[in-house]
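User:
Hi there, any thoughts?
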Amino acid sequence: MGHGGNVIDELQADHREVEEFFEKMQALPAHDEKRRDIADQLTIELVRHSVAEEMYLYPAVRKHLSGGDALADQEIKDHSTVEQLLKELERAKVGDARFDTLVQQLIQEVSAHIADEEQHLFPALARGVQTATLDELGDKIRTAKKFAPTRPHPGAPSTPPANKLLAPGTGLVDRARDFVTGRGRS
């Protein structure tokens, strides 16, 4: 969850972690209950990652990049799609066809989002934003992930200032629920 480095390094490390979760899940048989644990861990990482990006990365994209508003809006739209899939996956039972369908849709959506960020957005940030700002954003992203929600909340605000106000409280409730249920401990 906290890898170090500037914002690009931090988010790329998150991307590799998510890809590892996908590989682990796909390596298990369809009815293996370990897939639920992996799905929960994947959800926790994706939600924290998305919330942190929405709090700090996308506002920086809007501020520093030409056409940044359109870029940020598309990224947030992608997050919305993924968050809805995560919410449905949270309710699906391992072994049901719906679970497998949702996993495949999630892999497709997230993989496309990762590729777009790494091929277009991150190089644009590296060219257009000062190193000190990228380092500062990396620190902010790491801090945001510590307090971010761990469960999908599709109706929650995805832009500042509302997301910065609500995310820590929602995160606290989510982490309390996770502690009580044991979710994400594997």
